[in-house]
Amino acid sequence: MNTTGLTEHSAKSHKHWLVFTDLDGTLLDHFNYSFAKAVPMLAALRQHDIPLIIATSKTFAEVQPLRSQLRNGYPFIVENGAGIYLPLSFLPEEQLHQFSGVALHQGYWRLALSQPRAYWQTLLTQAAKDFHGLFASFTQLGTEGIARATGLSHQDARLANEREFSEPVLWLGDDNRKSQFIVHMTALGANVLEGGRFLHITGNSNKGRAMQWVADAFALRDGHRFTTLAAGDGKNDVPMLELADAALVMRSPVNPTLCLNRSHGYIESPCAGPLGWAKGINHFLQLGVS
Known about the structure:
Its EC number is 3.1.3.70. GO terms for molecular function: magnesium ion binding; mannosyl-3-phosphoglycerate phosphatase activity. This is Mannosyl-3-phosphoglycerate phosphatase. InterPro entries: HAD-like_sf, HAD-SF-IIB-MPGP, HAD-SF_hydro_IIB, HAD_sf. One of its GO terms (biological process) is mannosylglycerate biosynthetic process. This protein is α/β, with parallel strands linked by helices. It is built from eleven helices and 14 strands. The protein has helices at residues 8-12, 39-47, 60-70, 93-96, 117-127, 138-150, 154-160, 175-187, 207-222, 238-243, 273-285, and strands spanning 3-4, 17-21, 52-55, 76-78, 83-87, 102-105, 108-112, 135-137, 167-171, 191-194, 199-202, 227-232, 246-251, 266-272. Strand 12, helix 10 (238-243) and strand 13 form a beta-alpha-beta unit. Helix 2 (39-47) runs parallel beside helix 11 (273-285). The model is unreliable at 2-14 (pLDDT under 50).
């Protein structure tokens, strides 16, 4: 395992951890979406009362069944940081008023950090004139196309298309035109985040900003600062990995390993997928899970 600048002693000295994790290619296997090899670590986190906060490009609808499978009752971040959901019992309503933009939504407190999906669909329709045939949005792909592109079941593909704040794009052109497309969309006011499979068109939001908001909410609730540990494998995870106190850069079976600007406080996982995730998390938290 490649380690950079964070000793086991310094990791053990922190008492209050928050673990933020990407899903696909990180906690979930890139190919079959299984987290079976991470089950012992997930149990250890619960045993030690260490919150695990999902930070994903997935939708609210997708995350709900996953949270049940993971036995996870903590706040969660969706659509690359464009939306944050808190359980109703997480903070008293009077404390939530300290944060602007929080509203009730589908049985949770929700903070929206981006314009709605329809706004980005309109911009993509305009962009199609200059990049005709070079991309396919989720709207264009539909359930059938999303299932083919991701390997998801039709049911899961339908949930993936229930987006609130963003529009994923499957890029069909070369890298040069992709760079031009990103510049074009950025000039229109979009934030283009590159994930493991798709470009995500959204607003002025990212996983790093959302992570900080959630960490602040935990600190307000519990009365002390938390040490943040973030895990991810895609370019859309970089803002979170750069901002966290400690970072686990996941090896990918399909993409080059990310290079961060930070010079210390991070490691690369020893292998890809949930087993590499578990070993990397254990390196920092030293919970004795093999």
